[in-house]
Amino acid sequence: MKFHDGAEFTDEDVVASLARVSHETSPLRGNLPAYESSRVIDDHTVEIVVNTTYPLLLNDLTNILLFDAGWLKANNAELPTDAAAGVEGYPTSNANGTGPFIVESRQPDARTVFVVNPAWWDEPKHNITRIEFQPIASAATHVAALIGGDVVFVNAAPLQDLPRLESAPNVTVLAASELRTIFFGFNMREKLFSATDGSPNPFLDIRVREAVNLALDRNLLQSRVMRGLSRTTGSLVAPAIPGYSEALDIVLDFDPERAKALLTEAGYPDGFAFTLLCANNSFVNEEDICQATGSMLARVGITANLDILPGAQQRAKRSAAEFDMVILGWANEPMIDAYSILVQLFHSPSDARGVFNFGLWGNEKIDALTDASASELERPARIAMMNEALQEAKDQQMYVPLHQQPMVWATSDRVGNMLQLSDNKARLWYTMMK
Q1: Which of 47, 127, 247, 334 is the most buried if burial means most Cβ atoms within 10 Å?
Q2: Last residue of some domain: 98, 116, 151?
Q3: Mean pLDDT across the stretch 366-377?
Q4: In terms of domains, do 228 and 369 share one?
């Protein structure tokens, strides 16, 4: 196995890559929550030290992509980058991997071109000779480009244009539910972020959080905003994920009158205003979801001031907790296990835990159950602990679950076969063109 520049793949590359991704400044360090260190044993063996008995290490490692240690050193890139925090480096716009395709050229936000790696270590299962990725912001434009034959694959077909795509004789639509669950989270700090006078945070009151839950008509969101293609859920964990429980997948009934009563009980008979942070390009129909949510909350007296911008701008605000309520999506990857959301989103921030706990969600009970599940080798016992932690989060109304979002791809008739899995990743090395 060789890197694209011809360098040999070695044990030192594994150790350097693990050190980089687990560094305290890495935004991905939460993907290896039990990792402590690694060292070379011999030419084909690396020893990894973890901080506890831990059954999910192999799951975690599947999504840790490896660098050439020499390439990192030569390009002063041994420390991680973090685009959301504005920390960039040579790997931000350059690549050197071991995969089936090589980056020939890259123009950010314009075009990225890949060619086939003739020295790839595996046997090709594709007949592609060249790939050109082209971002097209306008939904109408990329639908027209697909129907017109200018592009052969769209990885996020707009839901509103599905009838047009399905009726086109030269287009095939691939649609399914994704692992990713879309939900709202509250900022649980003492003061309301958007209040200039330092007003107390209404969301600290469980009655207010429940009122938000009750104010949302999920059936309307599913039928109108998501065109009937999403899977409405009461759980943060999709059915395919270990840790899913039908008992947790109970959706609160739409009850605006009860929501108003709860707000009155909590001391907000006239409602209040807050900031809802959303992006317009991160999740499927995200902007429409937030607009509809704002309208529904207004009917019970709560004013959601929408902060909607492209995801690249919103990620920094989310990381800095510059919101009162925020839309989130979580697919429980790469672990494919409910421990992912518990340790990264709900656990109190500590080392590699709680890396994405922007709103200070969770509590001591959730922390204890999450930590205990991490070292439990018996699968039924481990899942029971995770279910109990997720039940605590549900009982405390810590989040507002909406749905598992749809993934809709579309291909032209030039594509013969394309593999679609529920993680919504296009594995083009398994794609056959006609």
Answers
A1: 334
A2: 98
A3: 94
A4: yes
Q: What is the DSSP letter of 409?
A: E
Note the Cα 267 to chain centre separation in Å: 35
Q: Let me know whether 353 and 215 are in one domain.
A: yes
Q: What is the pLDDT, as a whole number, of residue 203?
A: 97
CA 123 to chain centre: 31
Residues 6+ apart with CB under 8 A from 138: none
State the SS3 of 341-383: HHHHHHCCCECCECCCCCCCCCCHHHHHHHHHHHCCCCHHHHH
Domain membership flag for residue 348:
yes
| Chosen domain end from 98, 113, 128 | 98
In a domain, 392, yes or no: yes
User: In terms of residue numbers, what domain contains 259?
Assistant: 178-406
pLDDT tens digit sequence for 208-257? 999 999 999 999 999 999 999 999 999 999 999 999 999 999 999 999 99
Work out the mean pLDDT of the chain and round it to a whole number: 94
| Cα dihedral across residues 385, 389, 391, 392: positive or negative | positive
In a domain, 166, yes or no: no
Tally of domains within the chain: 2
Summarize pLDDT for 30-47 with one digit per residue, the tens: 888 889 999 999 888 999
Instruction: List the beta strands (DSSP E) in 271-430.
Output: 273-279, 303-309, 325-330, 399-412, 415-417
DSSP string, 113-174: EEEE-TT-SS-------EEEE-----HHHHHHHHHTTS-SEESS--GGGHHHHHH-TTEEEE
Check residue 109 and give its pLDDT. 84
pTM of the model: 0.84
Cα–Cα distance for residue pair 355/348, rounded to 1 Å: 9
Q: Which CATH number fits the domain that encloses residue 399?
A: 3.10.105.10
pLDDT category of residue 352 using cuts at 50, 70 and 90: confident
Among residues of the chain, what percentage have pLDDT more than 70?
Answer: 100
pLDDT at 87 exceeding the cut of 90: no
What contacts 415, CB < 8 A, 6 or more positions away?
152, 153, 172, 431, 432, 433, 434
